[in-house]
Design a protein that fits this description.
Layout (H helix, E strand, L loop, with lengths): L11 E5 L6 H12 L3 E3 H11 L2 H12 L5 H12 L8 E4 L5 H13 L6 E6 L2 H11 L6 H15 L1 H8 L3 E5 L4 H11 L8
Parallel strand pairs: 1-3, 1-4, 2-3, 4-5
Helix pairs in contact: 1-9, 2-3, 4-5, 6-7
Bound molecules: adenosine monophosphate.
The site of adenosine monophosphate (AMP) has 16 residues, from helix 2 and helix 3.
C-alpha cells in the first residue's frame, strides 16, 4: 500500500475521478492532514476567469462548454504553480492531469525535479449520482447538458489515466459513493494518518 510505514511529509498525490465525485472536498481534508497544499487547476482557471486575465479570457468559453482547455496551456499553468515555494513540501493535485499528454507533462516536471508521485487516488462514483450531485450544486457551468458533456470528456480523455497509473503501481481506489466521513476515513487510512483528528 502506498505510504505504508513511510512518512508522507512532502507527499505528492494526484486525485483522479469523474467531475463531481467530491475530489475537492475530500482533497481539502486529506491535505490538511498531510500538511500539503491542494492545487486545483479548475479553481485556478475559475480565478483567472473572475480576474478577467488573458488566461481567463482564453479559457472561459471552453470551460462553459464542458470541454478541456488545451494541454499546452495547462502545462504552463501547472509548471508555474508547482514551481511556487509552497509546492516544495508536496501537494495534492486535483483536476490535473486530465489527459495522457498531461500525465506525461507531469512525469517530466517530476523527473526534472528528481521527484516522484506517491499515489494516485481514484475517487469513483456512479454516473447517475454524479449528475444528481452536480445539479444540486447548481454552479453556472452545471447545466445538465454541460454535466453530461464533462462526463463524456472524462470517459474519453481522462479515464485512460486509470490504466496508465495502475500500470505504474500508483493507483489506489476509493469508493466515493458513501458518506463523506467514510470516504475521508478510507483516504486517511491509506496514508496512515489515522481516523482521529479534526
Ligand atoms: P474542474 O473544477 O476540475 O472540474 O475544472 C473545471 C473546468 O476547467 C474543466 O471542465 C475544464 O474546462 C477546465 N480544466 C480544469 N483542469 C483542467 C485540465 N487539467 N485540463 C484541461 N482543462 C481543465
Amino acid at each position: 500500500m502506498a505510504g505504508a510505514g513511510k512518512s508522507l511529509q512532502g507527499a505528492r498525490i494526484v486525485l483522479l475521478g469523474p467531475p463531481g465525485a467530491g475530489k475537492g472536498t475530500q482533497g481539502q481534508v486529506l491535505c490538511q492532514r498531510l500538511g500539503v497544499p491542494a492545487i486545483s487547476t479548475g479553481d485556478m482557471l475559475r480565478e483567472a476567469v473572475a480576474d478577467g486575465s488573458e488566461l481567463g479570457n482564453k479559457v472561459q468559453g471552453i470551460m462553459a462548454s464542458g470541454a478541456l482547455v488545451d494541454d499546452a496551456t495547462m502545462a504552463d499553468v501547472v509548471r508555474d504553480r508547482l514551481a511556487k515555494p509552497d509546492a516544495g513540501r508536496g501537494y495534492l493535485l486535483d483536476g490535473y492531469p486530465r489527459t495522457l499528454p498531461q500525465a506525461e507533462t507531469l512525469a517530466g516536471i517530476l523527473r526534472d525535479a528528481g521527484q516522484e508521485l506517491d499515489a494516485v487516488l481514484l475517487v469513483d462514483v456512479p454516473e447517475d449520482e454524479l449528475v444528481r450531485r452536480a445539479l444540486l450544486r447548481g454552479r453556472a457551468d452545471d447545466k445538465e447538458e454541460v454535466i453530461r458533456e464533462r462526463l463524456r470528456v472524462y470517459r474519453e480523455k481522462t479515464a485512460p489515466l486509470i490504466g496508465y497509473y495502475r500500470e505504474r503501481g500508483l493507483l489506489r481506489e476509493i469508493d466515493g459513493n458513501r458518506p463523506i466521513e467514510e470516504v475521508t476515513a478510507q483516504m486517511a487510512g491509506l496514508f496512515g494518518t489515522g481516523p482521529e483528528g479534526d
